[in-house]
Amino acid sequence: MDPLADIITLLRPSAAISKPISGRGRWGARYQAHAAPGFCIVLLGEAWVAFDGSAPLRLNQGDFLLLPTTPAFSLYSEPGSPCIVAEPQHEAVRHGEQEGEPEFIALGGSFTFEQINAPILLALLPDLIRIPALEGHATRFGRLIALLSEECAADFPGKDLILQRMLEVLLVEALRWGIVDRGRAPTGLLRGMQDPAIGRAMRAVHSDVRAKWPVDKLARIAGMSRSAFAARFSETVGCAPFEYLARWRMAIAKDALARGSKPLDRIADEIGYESASAFSTAFRKRIGRSPGSFARDHGGQDQR
């Protein structure tokens, strides 16, 4: 199984807001942090973005930026531009001079994720994925950007639906890009999948989450010694192999409980627990409440 596909499936991403952002002259806007994942695709011109604690990034035409969670940031026409406090809006935004053709145009907005597992799963993704135009244009990603730009400029029937579906595809493609990004991904899922040995072990876990997966067995799949594998897995993914398996099992369980379509004994069996009682004990220890209580609070049924 594909770990990235599994995680995207549980996150259930959808484009919540997508709007044109344009500017002319000298301008700047300051936005507060918010939990929703954010994105920006530069369709014309250039601008600068600065996140707290990081050096400013220059955004050029064709660049794509994805943030699984959105920290406070400033967007401006050039370094030193004064920034006004701004709030995210659903409508088109025009910065700077209000008359004349814009010098900068971008499509920006946010995605929604299934919130039940978002904290666990987003922790496995990098804080920022940036795909420069010069690198992205030669790929499938570049072709998607071109199609999206074309759709934005047109006024065909079904435009909003097409844009939403294309943005969802862009999200998955951007995360996939992180896997093949020549080793630049930070600690987490994407970096683990970049490593051929660790990637084989992660795919094995996702292919059979019911298995106990002792470290020595995963090490053999990776073609490494037990100690070397355990150290590299923790270094690349950010947690020990057993912890990764436990987190993934709980993510599957939380999703099933919220949907309310399976009894506890079936959920327990599907994720590798010998009984509903053993699963309930492990769930309470990790989540801090019983499976039944969790299910009731998230729209599922307390099925026994």
Question: What would you say this structure looks like, in words?
Answer:
Pfam families: Cupin_6, HTH_18. Residues 199-297 form the HTH araC/xylS-type domain. InterPro entries: AraC_lig, AraC_XylS_family_regulators, HTH_AraC, HTH_AraC-typ_CS. The protein is built from 13 helices and eleven strands. The model has no long low-confidence stretch (mean pLDDT 85). It has three domains: 3-179, Jelly Rolls, CATH 2.60.120.10; 195-238; 243-297, Homeodomain-like (Arc Repressor Mutant, subunit A). With 304 residues, the protein is of the alpha+beta class. The chain is elongated.
Rg over alpha carbons: 22 Å
Give the averaged pLDDT, no decimals: 85
Low-confidence stretches: none
- The count of strands amounts to 11
**What is the assigned CATH homologous superfamily of the largest domain?**
Jelly Rolls
Describe, in short, the structure shown.
This protein is α+β, with helices and mostly antiparallel strands and 304 residues long.
List key phrases describing it.
single chain; 304 residues; alpha+beta; Arc Repressor Mutant, subunit A; 3 domains; six-stranded mixed β-sheet; five-stranded mixed β-sheet; 11 strands; HTH_AraC; transcription regulation; DNA-binding
Write the layout of secondary structure elements.
Elements lengths: L2 H9 L2 E11 L3 E4 L6 E7 L2 E5 L5 E3 L4 E4 L5 E4 L7 E2 L7 E4 L7 E9 L5 H5 L6 E3 L1 H4 L3 H14 L5 H21 L9 H6 L1 H12 L7 H8 L3 H12 L3 H19 L4 H7 L5 H12 L3 H7 L7
Parallel strand pairs: 1-9, 2-8
Antiparallel strand pairs: 1-10, 2-7, 3-6, 3-10, 4-5, 4-7, 6-11
Pfam family, one: HTH_18
Keywords: DNA-binding, Transcription, Transcription regulation
Organism: Falsiroseomonas oleicola
